[in-house]
Amino acid sequence: MVVKIVEIKDIVIFSLFALALAYSYSLLGYDQILLYLFLVIFLVYSFISLHVSRKYGAKIKGWPTILKERDYTSIALTVPQTGLMMAVLITFYTGIYSIIIILIGFLVMFVGMGFNLMVRRELGKNWVPLSKTTENQELVTTGIYSRVRHPFYLSILVLFSGVAIISQNVWGLIFFILFIAGLIIRMKKEEKELILKFGEEYIEYMNNTPRLFPRV
Question: Among 56, 34, 60, 8, which residue's Cα sits nearest to residue 168?
Answer without folding.
Answer: 34
